[in-house]
Write a structure and sequence with these properties.
A hairpin with a 2-residue loop joins strand 9 and strand 10. It is built from ten helices and ten strands. The strands form three sheets. It has a four-stranded mixed beta sheet. A four-stranded antiparallel beta sheet has the order 2-3-7-6, covered by helices on one side. Helix 6 runs parallel beside helix 8. It has about 375 residues and is an alpha+beta fold. The two termini are about 40 Å apart. It folds into three domains: about 110 residues, Butyryl-Coa Dehydrogenase, subunit A, domain 1; about 110 residues, Butyryl-CoA Dehydrogenase, subunit A, domain 2, CATH 2.40.110; about 140 residues, Butyryl-CoA Dehydrogenase, subunit A, domain 3, CATH 1.20.140.10. The mean pLDDT is about 95. The structure holds coenzyme a persulfide (COS). Coenzyme a persulfide (COS) binds next to helix 6 and helix 10. The site of coenzyme a persulfide has 21 residues, from helix 6 and helix 10.
Length: about 375
């Protein structure tokens, strides 16, 4: 299938594929089993200059867009989404700086992220604010001098928590204003009062670090406010609009990895005197898995190119790509495991891990129920605007 990638994009795919084959696939079972953050693999990705794909050249990046970024994420995800999310969370943590930061903030933080010298993370979710992102309770209060904000609260389930140096954090500056009362800040690891909770034990993506961010009277310079006070919710929503295709890319990559493994296994596994690939029931399963994976990829690429075109109405497409590709990944991983039968249930084969990993895709960066809400509301708005 030709997706009309440019020569540069084909090179990104090739480079990311090479890292997946040489670094991710041989190490994924160990990283998962021992719950090891993939620092060495991320270093290889940085050495290959893939960290800055979506970052303008002015800030040390490659100067590409979401499309270039998702191509790399898709390839890494064919190997392991515990690794690919550790890479992709950098975009989630730094899109807000690119989109809302001052020139000074961009010059200060982006070159290290573009080079992969420093990891980034995004702090929105709290114990009582998951789908209800406007319900956050972390507070940011301006001190008497007006030069600092004092942050107090706890963020939960933060990908790259503890590993990242740079954090974009959403906190409430005026509770009475609800969604319009939150603001976004850039925090640095090591700021006094900024610590990390325990590393979570997870069903899947065990190579990735998931930690609490704990703020106890953290003194954040007013110069680290992103955009204006009260813009935090918009920063968060726009960030998710840009980053959800990255989750769709994880879904497409995982589905492709599971499909490849299942097709190969079906050719090799002999039952009733012939490979199970000769059975029409298996062929039909593979056909559906391949069709849905390809449809997810087409939606992902179309969405990413649409975002890169500078379009403003990206929420619906972004949510559709995330929803469809991740529901597909879960289904394909499930069917792949079924084709593997009892062997698929054993840790000896990669399908067991893919099946465990796939579930998070339907949950993080907005559950797939929330994606349907976003799509539904946008559809109704569009319909109201049409004659
Ligand atoms: N872009 C720009 N503005 C947006 C926006 C977007 N994508 N989505 C909402 N807004 C604006 C709305 O226009 C509204 O503005 P006004 O105050 O001017 O009316 C404001 O933000 C509040 O929007 P809304 O009323 O729709 O907010 P809700 O509290 O109902 O929440 C959802 C909306 C459910 C979409 C939001 O809470 C959400 O995305 N939740 C999931 C969070 C998530 O993905 N968490 C995962 C962890 S983060 S890695």
């Amino acid at each position: 299938m030709d997706h009309f990638l440019s020569d540069e994009q084909k090179m990104i795919v090739e480079l990311a594929r090479k890292i997946t084959l040489e670094e991710i696939i041989p190490n994924r079972a160990r990283l998962d089993e021992e719950e090891i953050f993939p620092a060495e693999i991320l270093k290889k990705i940085a050495d290959a200059d893939l960290y800055g794909l979506y970052i303008p050249e002015a800030y040390g990046g490659y100067g590409g867009g979401v499309m270039d970024f998702v191509l790399a994420v898709e390839q890494f995800s064919r190997g392991c989404i515990g690794v690919s999310v550790s890479f992709a969370a950098n975009a989630l943590g730094s899109f807000p700086i690119l989109a809302f930061g001052t020139e000074e903030q961009k010059q200060k933080y982006m070159p290290d992220i573009a080079a992969g010298r420093k990891q980034a993370a995004f702090g929105l979710t709290e114990a009582n604010a998951g789908s209800d992102a406007a319900g956050i309770q972390t507070t940011a209060v301006k001190d008497k001098t007006g030069n600092f904000y004092i942050l107090n609260g706890t963020k939960q389930w933060i990908t790259n928590g503890g590993e990242a140096e740079t954090y974009t954090v959403i906190a409430t500056t005026d509770k009475s204003k609800g969604a319009r009362g939150s603001s976004a800040f850039i925090l640095e690891k090591g700021m006094p009062g900024f610590t990390f909770g325990k590393k979570e034990k997870k069903l899947g993506i065990r190579a990735s670090a998931t930690r609490e961010l704990i703020f106890q009277d953290v003194k954040v310079p007013a110069a680290n406010l992103l955009g204006k006070e009260g813009m935090g919710f918009i920063v968060a929503m726009k960030n998710l609009d840009h980053s959800r295709p990255g989750i769709a890319a994880q879904g497409v990559g995982l589905a492709q990895g599971a499909l490849d493994a299942a097709a190969q296994y079906a050719r090799e596994r002999v039952q009733f005197g012939k490979p199970i690939a000769a059975l029409q029931t298996i062929q039909h399963m593979l056909a559906d898995m391949a069709t849905e994976t390809e449809a997810s990829r087409a939606l992902l690429y179309a969405t990413s190119r649409y975002i890169d075109s500078g379009a403003k109405d990206i929420s619906k497409m972004s949510a559709m790509a995330k929803l469809y590709a991740t529901d597909t990944a879960m289904k394909v991983a499930n069917d792949a495991l079924q084709i593997f039968g009892g062997y698929g249930y054993m840790r000896e084969y990669p399908i067991e891990k893919m099946f465990r990993d796939a579930k998070i895709l339907q949950i993080y960066e907005g559950t797939n129920q929330i994606q349907r809400n976003v799509i539904g509301l946008e559809l109704i708005k569009e319909s109201a605007g049409r004659k």
